[in-house]
Design a protein that fits this description.
Strand content: 25-35%
Strand order of the largest sheet: 1-4-5-6-7-11
Structural class: alpha+beta
Helix content: 25-40%
Oligomer: single chain
Largest sheet: 6 strands, antiparallel
Shape: globular
């Protein structure tokens, strides 16, 4: 009689205790007999997970504002991970040693419950009137996959992000997948997250797994095929380039990173900082301009001091950032705040203000540390940019120098950020002839899908203001290119209230030698008239021929 290998395995439920993680460690070892207690305790990813799910933030009145604290774990055995299974079929299955094709998942919950309560309420839904099962599932925080590999036991990890809290924590995880759906014991789970995975140094190193994280968002943005780590390394041509080492890869170089994206019909915007000092403001501007619309960015950096844990170079995926203060709300619901009074200013600004400069840190998927790991700016002087990666308890600060950025783009996006910045600097000087005398002016420059821009206005409330209604018609009826660059001028009044004054739209698909300005949308009627009736500006016209064309775009 054949043994039934498909019997139901009841999940084990146990408390999560970051200060005493012995139970979690023993559970991982039971799922992966190739690892030891010492190995797990020494893993930086394991230490990071303990810290990640032990976080609470209270205000001065002891009100809980920020919370991603886990209290309960649930073990799911014999789980089929699609990413691991693909790598298994291509690579691990040919090994002489016995490696399982199955993984396990450990799920984290904010609620406190035991095994019996999970079975009765979350699975059998016995107490549907009191919604105890619903409360358990609503407290779901994410999972980590345990794969049967001795060197790198942590497979796909999917964690809920820390929340955005107005005036306290201005976090923007732009590259996560909103409403990411997956199944847990038959329950449809929805969280906003981006998959992460520890590098295994077999089918890929840091660049491979950073690209793998990016592809989950690129699939949504550009409809590209989702690739496994093995497939990514294979597309880089490792076996042909490194003939002395057929596949256990030591990493990808910049040309291979570009070639992988090219295989998916994507163009890569590359910024190299190897031979010059990098101004931290420029790094912030690039990250903000491209990441705000969700595009994940690969960042390469070089450590100041190499150690046993680092070979000197590393590549991570930038998935978001945090601002010093909440950014201006460019949704048109805020148009009611528009100030109608315009006063000529006499002072000329040397440099324009940018919202991007408010970035205080950015978040990365760092395959040697964990998902959403913080990276702060470590200022050496005004002309040199150094970054400080997140440090675990007992670790010394890790300082590094950014060396390169790789930004995967739709092949129709031809206009670069520096082209738009140069155009806005010129337009900013033009505006100062009749612009508001406010405390401060800031430009919000970012790449955007035109459909997202239109939807901002479709979701806005109706207005009795004829001027604003005509503007709304203009934007919604205009046929836009798929991708646009938007530069929103933000004004800050004496009450520190922020509101948009103007949107300058550029066609992202324009040829480099063309005038890529597409549309100028003023949220202030008097400003609109000033630009429309542009006259007596012969001096500016001589300096910038585009000035005479500005009235045609409002």
């Amino acid at each position: 009689m054949l043994e039934n290998s498909h019997e139901a395995i009841r999940p084990e439920v146990f408390p999560f205790n970051p200060s005493k993680p012995e139970k979690l460690i023993s559970t991982i070892i039971n799922c992966n007999k190739k690892v030891t207690k010492e190995k797990i305790k020494s893993e930086r990813i394991f230490k990071y997970i303990l810290k990640y799910f032990n976080y609470e933030f209270f205000d001065k009145k002891e009100n809980l504002l920020d919370n991603c604290k886990a209290y309960t774990c649930v073990l799911e055995q014999k789980y089929v991970s699609q990413s691991y299974l693909t790598d298994y079929s291509h690579y691990y299955t040919t090994s002489f040693s016995e490696i399982s094709k199955f993984t396990s998942r450990i799920h984290f919950f904010h609620s406190k419950f035991n095994e019996e309560e999970f079975d009765e309420y979350a699975i059998l839904n016995k107490d549907s009137k009191n919604y105890k099962g619903q409360q358990i599932w609503e407290s779901y925080l994410g999972y980590m996959t345990i794969r049967p590999l001795g060197g790198s036991p942590f497979g796909t990890i999917l964690f809920k992000t820390y929340p955005y809290i107005e005036n306290f924590r201005s976090r923007y995880y732009n590259s996560i997948l909103e409403d990411f759906r997956f199944d847990v014991f038959g329950e449809q789970i929805r969280i906003s997250s981006l998959p992460f995975q520890q590098q295994d140094k077999a089918v890929g190193a840091c660049a491979t797994f950073a690209i793998w994280c990016c592809y989950h968002k690129l699939q949504q943005l550009y409809k590209t095929k989702l690739l496994s780590p093995y497939e990514i390394t294979k597309k880089a041509g490792i076996s042909q380039i490194h003939s002395e080492s057929m596949f256990p890869t030591v990493g990808l170089d910049g040309y291979q990173v570009v070639s992988i994206f090219e295989e998916s019909n994507l163009r890569t915007e590359t910024f190299s900082f190897e031979d010059k000092q990098l101004n931290p403001s420029l790094l912030k501007e690039i990250i903000y301009a491209y990441n705000k619309c969700g595009i994940p960015i690969l960042l390469g950096y070089e450590f100041d001091d190499a150690s046993d844990n680092y070979d000197g170079h590393h590549i991570v995926a930038i998935v978001g950032y945090r601002l010093n203060q909440p950014s201006v709300n460019t949704n048109t619901n805020s148009l009611k705040k528009i100030c109608s009074k315009l006063i000529k200013t006499k002072e000329k600004k040397k440099e324009i203000g940018l919202v991007a400069h408010d970035i205080m840190r950015f978040y990365t998927h760092n395959d040697e540390l964990g998902p959403y790991s913080k990276v702060d700016f470590d200022m050496q002087n005004n002309n040199t940019c150094k970054i400080r990666t997140f440090q675990l308890d007992g670790e010394s600060p890790i300082i590094a120098r950014p060396t390169a950025l790789w930004i995967p783009l739709d092949h129709t996006i031809k206009v670069k950020y520096e082209n738009v910045l140069a155009a806005i600097k010129s337009f900013d000087k033009f505006l100062l002839k009749f612009m508001t005398d406010t405390d401060f002016l800031k430009w919000d420059i970012r790449l955007c899908l035109a459909v997202d821009y239109k939807q901002e206005f479709s979701n806005s409330d109706s207005s009795d203001n004829i001027f604003m209604n005509n503007l709304k018609r203009k934007i919604r009826y205009t046929s836009f290119p798929k991708y646009i660059w938007i530069a929103t001028l933000t004004e800050v009044d004496e009450n520190n209230d922020e509101y948009p004054s103007i949107d300058v739209i550029y066609d992202a698909s324009s040829l480099p030698n063309e005038n890529c300005i597409f549309q100028i949308n003023c949220f202030n009627e008097e400003l609109h008239r000033n630009i429309k009736n542009n006259s007596n500006l012969s001096e500016e016209t001589d300096k910038n021929p585009n000035v005479k064309n500005y009235p045609n775009y409002v």
